[in-house]
Amino acid sequence: MKILVCIKQVPDMESRFRPNGEKTWYDESDLAFRMNEYDEYAVEQAVQLKEQLGGEPEITVLSIGPERTVEAIKKALAMGGDRAVHIRDDRHYQKDPWQIASMIASYAKGEGFDLIFTGMQSQDRGSAQVGVIVAELLGLSCATTLVGFSYDGGTITVKRELEGGIKGVAKLKLPALVTCQLGLNTPRYPTLPNIMKAKKKEIASLTPAELSGEAELTATAAIYPPAKKGGGLVLEGEIGVQVDRLMGILKEKTAVLR
Amino acid sequence: MKALLIGEYRQGKLLDTTYELKAFADRLGADSVMLLVGSEAELPKYDGRLYLADAGAYGEYNPDLHKQLVLQAVEKEKPDCVVFVHSSYGWDLAPRVAVALKAGQVSEIVALNEGAYEVNACNAKLRRTVTPRSGRCVLTIQAGAFSPSGEPQGTPQLERLELSGAPSGIDFVGYEAAEQKGVDLSKAEVIVSAGRGVGKKDNVPVIAALADALGGELGASRPVVDAGWVDHSHQVGTTGQTVSPKLYVACGISGAIQHLAGMKKADFIVAINKDKDAPIGEIADVLVVADVMQFVPAFTARCAR
Ligand SMILES: Cc1cc2nc3c(=O)[nH]c(=O)nc-3n(C[C@H](O)[C@H](O)[C@H](O)COP(=O)(O)OP(=O)(O)OC[C@H]3O[C@@H](n4cnc5c(N)ncnc54)[C@H](O)[C@@H]3O)c2cc1C
């Protein structure tokens, strides 16, 4: 079995963000990057399936991005991926989900993957499109927002998370693509020996020029910090003073404290 | 401008979010037609043409077949845009339709801005305006962002849609209900919720102690539940409980839309966050900029006095 896991490297969401010079995306300087949270569940699920099948499947990790993206790729390899493909693209942030998915599909086309895992969305762009578009371009069955996954004899059974805590259960025959939601599993931390082993794994490098290029279907007109509605009171400073002020406010404004 | 609105139906019921699609079309100033894979027994109030396909025949979740039905309606109506709610149904189906039409998709629109669509980026710390570059586009709207102005009215003119023998790679098995056990937060007057910023499981009792001191219940954000620090029955949000307490205290919670959806009806919201720019600050009545593990014990001690 051949498995592909698509991952993205994103900034820590607790960072401060400001627009870049072109006003098309955020400025990357001073940001700390890590693997997109949803993708960690995708990597983990692929590795668990490999373990279930006695180590037979080969797991390829794919990521599009600049030089720094190698760090996220190495983490996925240390979690249990076998090999990786890095599509080096410094202009990745200018591409829309259609272009990104087209690059992935263009790579995957001749490779004959039986199963593709992606996160349900990225934490920075949040379009929730890339996985589904890849599936459509490759003609694969697809299910999104997985909180449950099991494999048996060429068929996967998935639990999709719906609103209000309900789950939808469906079966798909391979080849298929699934997108992973938070809580699907518990992503493992790479151990030191596995980090060392990962250093020896192959990371093939491709350029966008080697893949089929598509024109964008949507464009970012502007990016900006949202207008602050304000209104709320911000308490900063010394803890003791904050405690006193909050106490006063709650006594005055709510019936909760007398 | 003409919009094809894709209504939602689940477990035999029309979903209320369907009405937000019409409200969005009105804000766009677009004429609209609707499509629903549902049942004649559960039609939306809608003053226009409604393409109805039978959920009995095409399944409530069968995106391969539903895509074909949407494409049929697109063929007949030639709309400028196809609009979905950004829900488990919409985000699954919309990109399939977009690829088939080779149309650009804009996901989770929160507002309109002079012909462009506004969407959030980076957990709502940034906003983008996006413009489609394809003639026809696919749009998904954030649930709750476009509320209908009045009571929905009208009787739709029905047109039936049918498919002949389209194949599907997905076999829908059924639904699993949400767990019913555990706490009912919907009646709590005070909820103190732990978010990822609490740091580790061992710190959760510190938050629970504040809930106790205020005579309330412990709530939690999703990562805290996923990590197994707190049972799922305490989760607040779209996939947890919807609450409306007199006081909601969010401890180390960033304020992601899915969390806000569950708690923004609280009468008074206090957020404790070390990040002054955390999106929760946008809806909090008071934002305490502090480390939760320093502030909460001090505040609990003060409440107990
Ligand atoms: C389909 C879907 C459904 C979802 N349903 C839900 C749902 O029902 N409920 C839900 O909650 N989420 C839900 N989510 C997840 C949601 O998008 C967010 O990931 C989640 O709410 C984030 O939880 P958090 O705020 O606790 O963590 P984070 O976003 O990681 O935020 C942690 C916050 O803590 C602050 N912090 C860190 N350390 C400290 C400290 N020492 N002191 C003070 N502050 C600190 C940080 O500044 C940050 O703001 C859903 C997501 C999807 C895609």
UniProtKB/TrEMBL annotation, chain A:
<keyword id="KW-0249">Electron transport</keyword>
<protein>
    <recommendedName>
        <fullName>Electron transfer flavoprotein subunit beta</fullName>
    </recommendedName>
</protein>
<dbReference type="InterPro" id="IPR033948">
    <property type="entry name" value="ETF_beta_N"/>
</dbReference>
<feature type="domain" description="Electron transfer flavoprotein alpha/beta-subunit N-terminal">
    <location>
        <begin position="23"/>
        <end position="215"/>
    </location>
</feature>
<keyword id="KW-0813">Transport</keyword>
<comment type="similarity">
    <text>Belongs to the ETF beta-subunit/FixA family.</text>
</comment>
<dbReference type="InterPro" id="IPR014730">
    <property type="entry name" value="ETF_a/b_N"/>
</dbReference>
<dbReference type="InterPro" id="IPR012255">
    <property type="entry name" value="ETF_b"/>
</dbReference>
<dbReference type="Pfam" id="PF01012">
    <property type="entry name" value="ETF"/>
</dbReference>
UniProtKB/TrEMBL annotation, chain B:
<keyword id="KW-0813">Transport</keyword>
<keyword id="KW-0249">Electron transport</keyword>
<dbReference type="Pfam" id="PF01012">
    <property type="entry name" value="ETF"/>
</dbReference>
<dbReference type="InterPro" id="IPR014730">
    <property type="entry name" value="ETF_a/b_N"/>
</dbReference>
<dbReference type="InterPro" id="IPR001308">
    <property type="entry name" value="ETF_a/FixB"/>
</dbReference>
<dbReference type="InterPro" id="IPR018206">
    <property type="entry name" value="ETF_asu_C_CS"/>
</dbReference>
<dbReference type="Pfam" id="PF00766">
    <property type="entry name" value="ETF_alpha"/>
</dbReference>
<protein>
    <submittedName>
        <fullName>Electron transfer flavoprotein subunit alpha/FixB family protein</fullName>
    </submittedName>
</protein>
<dbReference type="InterPro" id="IPR014731">
    <property type="entry name" value="ETF_asu_C"/>
</dbReference>
<feature type="domain" description="Electron transfer flavoprotein alpha/beta-subunit N-terminal">
    <location>
        <begin position="3"/>
        <end position="176"/>
    </location>
</feature>
